[in-house]
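FAQ: What does a multi-protein file look like?

Like this. Sequence, then tokens, then the next protein.
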Amino acid sequence: KTFFPEEISSMVLVKMKEIAEAYLGCQVADAVITVPAYFNDSQRQATKDAGVIAGLNILRIINEPTAAALAYGLDKNSGQGINVLIFDLGGGTFDVSILYIDDGVFEVKSTAGDVHLGGEDFDTRLVNHFIEEFKRKNKKDIMGNKRSVRRLRTACERAKRTLSSSSTANIEIDSLFEGIDFYSTITRARFEELNSDLFRSTLDPVEKALRDAKLSKADIHDIVLVGGSTRIPKIAKNLEEFFGGRELYRTINADEAVAYGAAVQGAVLKGDKSDTIKDLLLLDVAPLSLGIETAGGVMTPLIKR
């Protein structure tokens, strides 16, 4: 049986709806859904469709870094104008946004990113490393065996998480391929070496966002880490060094910040009058140029990114 991506996404949303209803003890009908800032229009529409399939009324689609900035703004509760850089590295996508926050107004100055960079790419580097090791040790290639590769990927993801807090991680898989057990160890240093180019590439969108916002590194007041992959020490270290040894803002939960911000936006849209959010205003940018197709199939931008 084959499924459309929207159908798979809707299954996740249905499960989330059930969890929310069980926790709240009431029906949930409306939703604010977040997407990577660099999603194009068709990706956003597909996300909306998934929500409709799941039986939700989509109040708004908002960008993940923007949602995280809402969480940061309420956590920090600072009145005066500040520039904040949101560094959002998740499982499959990467976004950088710069916002100007002043007295409840959240204005996005620029956004940059890569919709194909995240934790899964780091897992893949580990998987390929261990496939080669298995080949060296046992003269057998497991690449063609989907089940073996999937089991190895699961173990690699676990090892990656371990390496965020330990200097070494063990891989132990019984009967990985043709009855052969696979046991190995990887150090944090080796993991960083395998992914060094990917880790470095996360700084390119940071530079681009700064350029687009016409700001220097010194103009940024806070650097906020969002997304599970920012727990990788080397990624945080590279970012700290890029900003001249500045300390990163880690007070908000990297996993929950986006959902927290989306909930705040939902409350605003539903007319919540709480003191903390009643004057909240969100001003976002178009991350990609919007245009029309003209003669010869040329895209003519009407609204530049």
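And here is the next protein:
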Amino acid sequence: MGCEILFQLKTFKTTFGFLKISISDPFLFRKYEPAVRNLLNVCALQLENSLHSKIAGRYKGHLEELVEEKTAELQNEISEKIEQAEKLRENEERFRSLVENVDDIIYTMDKTGKFTYVSPKWEKWMGHSPDEVVGTTFEHYVHPEDIDKCIEYYKQVFFLKKMPAVLEFRVIKKDGSIRWHASNGSPLR
């Protein structure tokens, strides 16, 4: 008295089909059924791995191509950024050399009147080192009678974005002596 047993070939994700086994002695088969089920599970896993390998193989070439393209793009971008950084560094060096070698005082200040930069010539003309000046306000160096006209001038530069005519005012040097100073300013962009 024989029988047929239908086994499903499946993994957790995929069903691959069914396997029909004809058995002549069902009682004898019960002894081997766990081994047969394990073998079928292994077959199902092998089929799934094979399927994934085929899918991966199909896309592998395309993915490698995309990676190569993106790598080339990134290399170009990095090269451009390095070039730009080098040009910027060269421009900064040229500008610094110009500013440091001109015989005039060049300075920048924020909207509160604090110096954010003063060129080395400040020390020659005023007596203070640039480090002493940066972070202080211009009022420390301007004759008290000229502070209001300096404030008015800087308001035009900072808030009205105007480039007014040259401002002449008195400054107080580190040694206490007073000298006339002419300044023209413009807002930094």
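Q: Is there any per-entry metadata?
A: Some entries carry free-text notes. For the entry above: The chain has two domains: 3-70, 103-183.
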